[in-house]
Design brief:
The chain is of the alpha/beta class. Helix content is about 30%, strand content about 25%. The chain has 25 helices and 36 strands. The strands form 11 sheets. It has a 5-stranded mixed beta sheet, with helices on both faces. It has a 5-stranded mixed beta sheet with strand order 7-12-11-9-8, with helices on one face. It is elongated.
């Protein structure tokens, strides 16, 4: 979670309706309007206006309902901010009036004799009793409260805190607001009063302490508040004043608007308060406490640019649950106070668990592909040549026979290093037919990283598309003890001369728990980690993916993801198991958006899986293309591997209106974990969605407690499809902690994986990615999310792409940020850097961002997964 949101340093402008204090009343009986006007001037000053609406010709306001009329009055600005207060009167009948008292700010609501309604009551009572009229107040435009603003959000030792919301915080201060009323009943009122008496404080202070605890839990920052007991927090909570009380850290306020503060008493009339809200909000969240006895009542004011009404209602439910637990056991640490009741927790736990819906992939993927051997459709299309399913499975059988002849046995790892094309797909199937498991390498390059991978893998054979003479890695491997090379072009060259020709003889089906492949990811130590996955896991995910995203007959699926990264295997086998046609992307086209977009159009591609940063590059080309050169056949765009922003989603929806947009999330250790289909405009962070079948996805805190909705924690996946572990490396690090089960869950044979990714369960039940714990750094006491800085800088039109890395000193502390920027065009380097610094200052306000900018002349380096390879930026 970033703590440097641009909205955080902004205050409401003087005169904003968000600062208004007001109260509305329905008055029945003999109201003396002349006396009321005189009392008003005596209370608020001679320059305090009285706006009166009487029955007469139809007017715009006359047609409004009572509450809507008062709400509109309460939102009217004060001309120049000079008037000390206003009184609005509407005569509904001779004995029925509406009154609205409104002041421009909290300070102007207060009088020497009390709050504005009480002071007006006293003045009116004096006049109608025949006593001498009180002298008009001189408090006005030049009083002590002129120019008073709402308090600015506080900054803690870790910087200003941002509440997670339904939508992204806009750059400009959002004023639109609404409210949700609450009445928590006399039981909580009684328990609140008892705790207040026992701790020698007031019920309002108990409510304020509970609100402080709630917003701190949401913000995810512990300055000692979360580890303290509720009693300790209560003792540290001041008695709420009559003016709004700022909750330190997040943009939240607490207002104690008790009955005495808004009571209006006019002799000879019946005065009934009316619930009115002027449609604005002074903070992200404002808890307004009306009464604590006999029942706890009030409202939650929220910014409608950030929260839905249903979210505001859930926030109130969580606060009530927290207060009930705190008043029952005030010695409980704040971090342990429940925020969801048992019913909510049980529903959330059930929703997190998709393990019972795993019914996909009955049998290994290569045996499923064989079932399509008799169909007419093409399995692979490359370079204008189409390979049918029958021909593909025949090729796979010949490869399997050749591998067996070369010494590959069931359980043997086999490295595949070939150029894109139908032969490469046949070899993948052939390795599985021979009983081996795959390790898929990108052709060309690799260097020491690929050598390290091969040392850990120790493959029984490496399959090439030709001889090793032009492949340095293959020559190195051939010289290693036990190195064996197989030329697939000779195996598949012709039926008469190819080794292993003849009728297919399939071996016994593999055990579901046997490994199907090994994928490598970059380890935290810089050494690649080999991750084995089973036939059951690959078959289940490929079956689900192919069915869910309609990858069967008629589908034309781009095989875009680079080998080594397991989504490449997923898109290959999901297509072949479902019966669609796979289109391997030529290597010269794959990472060049200017070439890939025309290729998508030419081939009529219906399905593309890529990473969001590359999708942004494609978007630029698509937007600049004419209508006839856009990939209109694209029906599915699957985005994975990186955080997905709402801005990118909305632009993609505009450019590709016919395409389904899917956000996929999951570490290689689980193949995938969650998915979310984007069906409408995205006003905030794009969810990563809900668990895939066969997986349970939980959000837990550092003590393995389930995080309530709205609270950020670590994502943990429980599944039979979690990898059994990493390839054993002599002297390598111990990774067992990553697979430690979450405490409190009974063992059932499924495995656990702790992802290191941060997330929160949204109030709508979807999961929202909140970054990585290792992408959050503390810079001079301020917690900064590096990806948030990247996203902000990417919004500058002069920036093509960028990456941000922390620079650490000998003590491991971050001293500055390294910002690597690829500009969109030629320009003056110094001017560009000045402009980028200014852009970040506008986005992040007063927070210091000491940064060293590096202006790059080529695109950011990317790894096999298509993600930015940050390790190469520092070389």
């Amino acid at each position: 979670m970033t703590v440097t949101d641009p909205d955080r340093g902004l205050r409401q402008a003087p005169g904003s309706a968000a600062l208004h204090r007001y109260a509305a009343y329905r008055v029945t009986g003999g109201l003396d309007l002349d006396a009321l006007r005189t009392a008003w001037r005596a209370t608020a000053g001679n320059d305090a206006p009285v706006e009166q609406m009487t029955p007469g010709p139809p007017a715009a306001d006359a047609e409004l309902g009572d509450e809507e009329l008062c709400s509109r009055w309460a939102a009217l600005p004060f001309a120049g901010g000079d008037a000390p207060a206003r009184l609005h009167i509407a005569r509904r009948s001779p004995r029925e009036h509406l009154l609205l008292l409104v002041a421009p700010r909290a300070g102007a609501w207060e009088r020497p004799s009390g709050a504005l309604p009480a002071a007006l009551s006293d003045a009116y009572r004096t006049i109608v009793a025949g006593d001498r009229a009180p002298a008009p107040s001189r408090r006005g435009a030049h009083g002590t409260h002129r120019g008073e603003e709402s308090p600015a959000p506080a900054e803690t030792a870790s910087g200003p805190l941002v509440l997670p919301a339904d939508r992204k915080h806009p750059h400009l201060p959002p004023h639109a607001g609404s409210t949700v009323a609450f009445d928590w009943g006399p039981d909580l009122g009684r328990r609140t009063a008892q705790l207040a008496e026992a701790e020698q404080t007031t019920p309002a202070a108990v409510l304020l302490a509970g609100f402080r605890a709630l917003v701190r839990r949401y913000a995810g920052h512990d300055d000692g508040t979360l580890s303290a007991t509720f009693r300790e927090l209560l003792h540290d909570t001041p008695e709420p004043a009559s003016t709004p009380c700022e909750v330190e850290g997040p943009d939240a306020l607490f207002v104690h608007r008790g009955q005495s503060h808004t009571a209006l008493r006019l002799p000879g009339t019946e005065v009934r308060p009316m619930p009115v809200h002027n449609g604005t909000a002074a903070a992200d969240l404002t808890l307004v406490l009306q009464s604590t006895a006999p029942s706890v009542t009030g409202s939650l004011e929220y910014r409608t640019t950030l929260f839905e009404a249903t979210s505001a209602q859930r926030i109130l439910e969580q606060l009530a649950t927290l207060l009930a637990a705190a008043t029952a056991a005030p010695g409980t640490p704040v971090s342990e106070l429940p925020m969801d009741d048992e019913r909510r927790r049980e529903l959330a736990l059930r929703a997190s668990d998709g393990r019972t819906a795993a019914g996909y992939g009955k049998g290994a993927v290569h045996t499923s592909v064989r079932r399509h051997a008799e169909q007419d459709g093409a399995a692979v299309s490359f370079g204008g040549a189409r390979t049918g399913y029958g021909e593909l499975t025949a090729h796979a059988a010949r490869v399997a026979a050749a591998l067996t002849g070369a010494g590959v046995r069931p359980g043997s790892p086999v490295a595949v290093r070939m150029e894109p094309g139908a032969h490469r797909i046949a070899v993948l199937l052939g390795v599985l037919e021979a009983g081996g498991h795959l390790a898929w390498f990108a052709p060309g390059g690799g260097g020491e990283r690929h050598k390290a991978m091969l040392r850990d893998l120790r493959p029984a054979c490496m399959v090439l598309d030709g001889g090793p003479q032009d492949d340095e890695l293959a020559r190195w491997y051939a010289d290693e003890p036990g190195g064996c090379l197989l030329d697939a072009s000779r195996v598949l060259g012709s039926h008469s001369s190819a080794p292993g020709g003849g009728a297919a003889a399939y071996g016994a089906p593999p055990d579901p728990s046997d490994p199907a492949y090994v994928a490598f990811t970059s380890g935290s130590t810089g050494r690649p980690k080999g991750i084995a996955q089973s036939h059951a896991a690959l078959a289940q995910f490929a079956g689900w993916m192919g069915e869910r995203f309609s990858m069967g007959p008629g589908a034309r699926v781009a095989q875009w993801v680079s080998p080594e990264h397991d989504p490449a295997l997923a898109e290959v086998f999901a297509t072949l198991v479902a019966g669609g046609t796979l289109f391997p992307v030529p290597e010269r086209v794959r990472v060049n958006p200017d070439k890939l977009v025309p290729w998508l159009v030419q081939e009529g591609i219906t399905h593309l899986q890529t990473v969001p940063s590359f999708a942004r590059d494609l978007l630029g080309v698509i937007t600049d293309s004419g209508a006839e050169h856009r990939p209109d056949a694209l029906s599915h765009l699957l985005l994975m591997g990186e955080a997905l922003t709402g801005e990118l989603v909305d632009e993609l929806r505009t450019a590709l209106p016919r395409a389904r947009l899917i956000n996929l999330y999951g570490p290689t250790e689980t193949i995938a974990a969650t998915w979310h289909e984007i069906t409408g405009p995205s006003a905030g962070p794009v969810p990563i969605g809900r668990p895939l079948p066969g997986r349970q996805v939980l959000v837990v805190d550092e003590h393995d407690r389930l995080c309530p909705a709205g609270v950020t924690g670590e994502l943990v996946v429980r599944s039979p499809y979690v990898t059994p572990g990493y390839l054993a490396v002599p002297g390598g690090p111990d990774h067992s902690a990553l697979f430690r089960p979450v405490a409190g869950f009974a063992p059932d044979g499924d495995r656990w994986y702790r992802t290191g990714d941060l997330a929160r369960l949204r109030f709508d039940g979807a999961l929202e990615f909140r970054g990585r714990s290792d992408f959050q750094v503390k810079l001079f006491g301020n917690r900064v999310e590096l990806t948030e800085i990247e996203a902000a800088l990417n919004r500058d039109p002069s920036v093509l792409e960028c990456a941000v890395l922390p620079h650490l000193n000998e003590q491991g502390l971050v001293t500055r940020l390294g910002v690597y920027v690829v500009p969109r065009g030629e320009g003056d380097a110094r001017a560009d850097v000045r402009a980028w610094r200014a852009h970040l200052r506008r986005q992040f306000g007063p927070l210091a961002l000491p940064a060293v900018f590096t202006r790059l002349t080529s695109r950011l380096p990317r790894n096999a997964a298509g993600k930015v390879d940050r390790s190469q930026l520092t070389r």
